[in-house]
Amino acid sequence: MSNLVTEITEKIQMLNATEKQQLLHMLLQDIDGPDQDADEAWRNEVVRRVQAIHNGEAAIRALKEWQD
């Protein structure tokens, strides 16, 4: 491990849980970036499913029916 990583690791240990969570969130955003493709794909899927229900191509089933 480089000296810089060691130094950063030591400083991270001094952070409280909230600060660590904020740092982690920032690092993940930096690595992954916003996933606009996934957001759009989910929106399209929701629209597709709602249209299928309205068109009678799919039925809404109660949660109890899924458990049986």
What are its keywords?
68 residues; mainly alpha; elongated; CHP02574_addiction_mod; Addiction module protein
Report on this model:
74% of the residues lie in helices and 0% in strands. It is built from four helices and no strands. It has two domains: 1-33; 35-68, no CATH class. It starts with a helix and ends with a helix. It is mostly helical and 68 residues long. InterPro entries: CHP02574_addiction_mod (IPR013406). It holds the Pfam family Unstab_antitox. This is Addiction module protein.
Task: Give the structure's gist in a few sentences.
The protein is mainly α and 68 residues long.
First-residue to last-residue Cα separation: 54 Å
Helix content: over 70%
* Mean residue pLDDT: 86
Main sheet makeup: none
Strand content: under 5%
Radius of gyration: 22 Å
The tally of beta strands, per DSSP, is: 0
Overall shape: it is elongated
Could you spell the SSE succession in H and E letters? HHHH
Low-confidence segments, given as residue ranges, are none
Structural class: mainly alpha
Tally of alpha and pi helices = 4
How many structural domains in the coordinates? Answer: 2
Secondary structure elements and their pairing?
Blueprint: H1 3-12, H2 17-32, H3 36-54, H4 63-67
Organism: Massilia aurea
Pfam families: Unstab_antitox
InterPro entries: CHP02574_addiction_mod (IPR013406)
